[in-house]
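Dear Dr. L.,

I hope this message finds you well. Following up on our conversation about the binding site, I have prepared a predicted three-dimensional model of the protein together with zinc ion. For your records, I am including the exact sequence and ligand specification that went into the calculation, followed by the structure tokens. Please feel free to forward this to your student if that is useful.
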Amino acid sequence: MSITADYHMHTHHSGDSDAPMEDMIKSALDKGLEQICFTEHQDLDFPDWYDLPEFPFILDVDSYREEFLHYKEIYADRIDMNFGVEIGMQTHIADANAEFVKRGGYDFVIASIHLVDKKDPFYPDFWEGDTIENIYRKCFNSTLENIRLFTEFDVLGHIDYISRYAPEGDTTYSYRRFADQIDEILLYLIRNDKGLDFNSKLLGNDISLLPNPVPDVLKRYKELGGRIITVGSDAHTPEKIACGFEKMHEIASACGFKEYYTFDKRTPVAHAL
Ligand SMILES: [Zn+2]
Ligand SMILES: [Zn+2]
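The resulting structure of the complex is given below.
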């Protein structure tokens, strides 16, 4: 078997993508996918930054839904399309995010940390003013705090996302080094029937890189009793859809997974790996 569902992707409805929705669908068909889920960004209270427009990640849900339903009908006999969202968590907006999700009628909700203390790891100033180890600790603390407050989600997005942007050559991050905090997050997810987004974005840049989570974290999730994983490219352009999925299949199998999941109206559906 192979992975035939990509459950993390963005189009022009997200502030950091220009991709036309139909181009994403056509690329998914070209790559042999049977199912996709759009997961557009909704990041309330994202800080102003010089190279971003004002309110860069506020989703226009009506326009997103309208375009989605239009193409869902056109492509109904060729691909199963699902309506998802990626929520940017911050503790002070947990209630607003929950309300937003309830209003949307989504098939699938990813909860992600894109900011720690209102700073974005993408920019170098995030990594200044403390040791890198402490910054990772702060991020994992914040992840746990946020998923305890905001529960309207199905999978936790790219759990070790900030490692993507660590200063070049830095080797601080490993599962072992942060095992205490990572285990706490994984156990919370498992006990609350939440899953993990197994995210291949970096493999789309360089196939020798590791996914998020890294294999050691995925393996630990399985050991602790974790069951639900969704596989997503986090594509922001059509050519990145399903990037690295063969390698993702190998890693998930090697970690002991026999299934991956899709979601229909927030209900998990298992597929053989
Ligand atoms: Zn994300
Ligand atoms: Zn994303």
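In brief: The chain has one domain: 5-272.

With kind regards,
A. P.
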